[in-house]
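Field notebook, page 544. I keep forgetting to write these up properly, so this time I am using the form the group agreed on. The chain and the ligand, guanosine-5',3'-tetraphosphate, are recorded exactly as supplied. Prediction of the bound pose follows.
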Amino acid sequence: MTNSPGAAATVAPRSDKVSLEARRRRTFAVISHPDAGKSTLTEALVLHAKAITEAGAVHGKGNRRATVSDWMEMEKARGISITSTALQFPYTTGSGDTCIINLLDTPGHADFSEDTYRVLTAVDCAVMLIDAAKGLEPQTLKLFQVCRHRGIPIITVVNKWDRPGRYALELMDEIHERIQLQTTPLTWPVGIAGDFKGVLDRRTGKYIKYTRTAGGATAAPEEHIEASRAHEIAGDDWDTAVEESELLSADGADFDRESFLRCTSTPVLFTSAILNFGVNQLLDVLTQLAPSPNGAIDVDGNRREADSPFSAFVFKVQAGMDSAHRDRIAYARVCSGTFERGDVLTHATTGKPFVTKYAQSVFGQQRSTLDTAWPGDVIGLANAAALRPGDTLYSDVAVQYPPIPSFSPEHFSVARGSDPSKHKQFRKGIEQLDQEGVVQVLRSDLRGDQAPVLAAVGPMQFEVASHRMAAEFSAPITLEPLPYTVARLCEPEDVKLLARLPSVEVFTRTDGVLLAVFATKWRLETVQRENPEITLRGLVAADQ
Ligand code: G4P
């Protein structure tokens, strides 16, 4: 680049370019109860954005699973998705602007909710996917609480409208009553669940008519019809949709951006992910209404603006994603500035330089080298042995982002190496699983270092730990369950008293946190009642 005045006039200053790139990015995750259609919707979104030409190339179940990660046989055997991936694809809106969508995948199974929680620290918005026949389910509720606690705006998608289900108004009431979220539908179904003809677009008043395609494998054609002609085409179903929409408006259920961003109202859309109905509208809503990356708040409560020098935080570390590359990838979300592969960053925890030669983007099972990234993007850093979830990376101006809190574990097991000659491998494996956050590792003087206690939110985390100890570290383990179900943070001065109580034990977690564990929540309540001087705190708000 030259310094001539002409060149200066045509090249945008760096921070302008960063702001521009940040503004056109949307980084979000889909939260749902298993089976609500998350994988199907993910495929449909990518399909609509024309990043792939045939549904099924990203991930899926059953026969669609041919292209899926083979990193863990357990994943296949159970037919669930444990691996989280970050998909990036461009989407051109009707007005011709191109947005970059970052869709962060979350594991569907409740046992991996801690992983999901970590992913949610890296998004600017969440899509809450609900099965039209089932409404709010336990996992949706739990994840919703996490979003509310973190102030993540939510777009609600009522899926499977092609199948018989509940009444739309009834579903809106359920959301309002059970989670105190004002619903502001942007579209309203024309035809009841099981008879999906199209939707009333409440912002334009038009009828969007959907047409089925064979197998739903390509983007479903849609027609936008003026309200004056809609009755002719959709008959009484149109009139009902109009009446119900007017009822909603009278009830204050019209979109309000401020309350959406505050997480007190949620725009709602109706879809059939399998038929690709309504998926277009979701992409439009994401690009038009979802917030773009806006820097991040550091550990001192100050905002680092998106156009500041580069910074990112690691939200996930994952090893052994496929048998061909038994390596370790740290996923970092860019908060500010530009990333260029090869940049030498600073690792805030150690103050040491971190070279980013092996940056990758991960798209489904494919990995490709990533050269540049902007705020909102996810960088996969391979061979990043030093990085842990919650770590900050920066360049030029130092910054430290807050650590990612852990969930309260609810399952505890003593881990013992089955083969005493593999002691070294045992230690290394446990340390690695701990660093990745696969399980939490607890120790106490009472139990000694040979038999650490593994703690998990869901028992399937133990299966992953066992499997990996044997397969990756050649150190098979046995697990002896302990009779505890609740954990609370405690203070050093209370340890002695707590340790003397029956059905209570105190451990030190690897990060130095003291955890008191209790057999049941009633036992916890009794201890609190009988010892009011003891301070016990939940690990995250969702646990309280
Ligand atoms: P998940 O990731 O949230 O667990 O759900 P997934 O997409 O795997 O969908 C769960 C089941 O629901 C799948 O059926 C899928 O085909 C179906 N499904 C998803 N979206 C829709 C929809 O809009 N309408 C209808 N009718 N069904 C939908 P499956 O029988 O378990 O698997 P498959 O054999 O169809 O792949």
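OBSERVATIONS:
- Residues 236-250 form the longest helix (15 residues).
- The chain is about 25% helix and 30% strand.
FOLLOW-UP: compare against the apo run.
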